[in-house]
Amino acid sequence: MAAPALLVAIPLVAGVVAGALSQAGTSAALCVLALTWVAAAAGLWRRRALVVTAAIVAASFCAGFVRGSGASRAAANPSLLTWFHESPSHADPVILTAVLREDAAPGASGVSVVADATAVPGRAVHGGVRVSIAGALAGEARRQWRGGRTVTITVALPEPLD
């Protein structure tokens, strides 16, 4: 075979796509993954190349499925959103630590920044936020808000739209 890595790469990518699109849990895929590795070991022990190859292809698909499913769940339910829904009061301002994704951009009524949240009081989180800063001084301060910078800001978090 000219490209033996494709026996792993193609099923792995197909598994990631299937896992991301599937609503199924990963426990069954983990069980199948364990069985395929046992089958691969048995095939090696009995010198059955076809069994080993088939087991590695199946294991690659299952491993991709587990990764894709987990990534899909993490993207759909970031810990910041979970914290928001568990928070007792949505009306109170929150002290948020975040890393700016890009430089602040001027908007119609102030400045807008997009950031990746890293912490709220007492809890590490992850999730994206868009923050609008209004006021006369926001335009001048915009130059200091550069992508990659870690900031701690007090914000009012409304219910996410999407």
Overview of the molecule:
This protein has 162 residues and is α+β, with helices and mostly antiparallel strands. The chain has two domains: 6-76; 79-155, no CATH class. Helices cover 46% and strands 23% of the residues. It contains five helices and five strands; from the N terminus they run ααααββββαβ. It has helices at residues 6-21, 27-45, 49-76, 79-86, 138-141, and strands at residues 94-100, 105-106, 110-120, 123-134, 150-155. Strands 1, 2, 3, 4 and 5 form a five-stranded antiparallel beta sheet that branches. A hairpin with a 2-residue loop joins strand 3 and strand 4. The chain starts with 5 loop residues before the first helix and ends in a 7-residue tail after the last strand.
What would a concise description of this structure say?
The chain is built from five helices and five strands; from the N terminus they run H-H-H-H-E-E-E-E-H-E.
SSE topology:
Blueprint: H1 6-21, H2 27-45, H3 49-76, H4 79-86, E1 94-100, E2 105-106, E3 110-120, E4 123-134, H5 138-141, E5 150-155
Antiparallel strand pairs: 1-3, 1-5, 2-3, 3-4
Helix pairs in contact: 1-3, 2-3
